[in-house]
Amino acid sequence: MPNTAEKPEPNIVEPAVEELNRIVEQAEALLMSLGTQSGEAAEAVRARVSQTLNQAKSKLAATASSAEEVADSLAQKADDYVHNNPWQAIAIAALLGSVLTLLVTKSSNRT
């Protein structure tokens, strides 16, 4: 049985990526609003926001990499299944094709 604790689930990764994108956008907007502000306080805020922005971008890259690994792993498992069970894979593909054909036919009859 595969160990799913090592890699995040795809449905967990997407909200995390969206949240990190939101944080990056907010940090960039804050940096832009600081613009030409000067002074020790503005520089401290600018430095902190820049640090947070870099951390968020780093986490976003790591999350994207992790999501890519999950996708690659799922593709490899599907490939292995098809190679180990070719007739079952053909039957599943035929079944899915039939269902898809049925759905398309029904939806085209409605219009």
Biggest sheet details: none
Q: How many beta-strand elements?
A: 0
Q: What is the overall pLDDT average?
A: 79
Distance between the termini: 46 Å
The unreliable regions are: 1-8
Integer tally of domains: 1
Helix content: over 70%
Radius of gyration: 24 Å
Strand content: under 5%
In one word, what is the shape?
A: elongated
Q: Please tally the helical runs, counting DSSP H or I stretches of 4 or more residues.
A: 3
**Class computed from helices, strands and strand pairing:** mainly alpha
Order of helices and strands: HHH
How does this structure look, described?
- The chain has one domain (about 10-110).
- Helix content is about 85%, strand content about 0%.
- The longest helix is centred in the middle third of the chain and has 45 residues, at about 40-85.
- With about 110 residues, the protein is an all-alpha fold.
- The chain is built from three helices and no strands.
Write the layout of secondary structure elements.
Layout: H1 10-34, H2 40-84, H3 86-110
Helix pairs in contact: 1-2, 2-3
List keywords for this structure.
3 helices, disordered N terminus, 111 residues, mainly alpha, elongated
Short description:
With 111 residues, this protein is mostly helical.
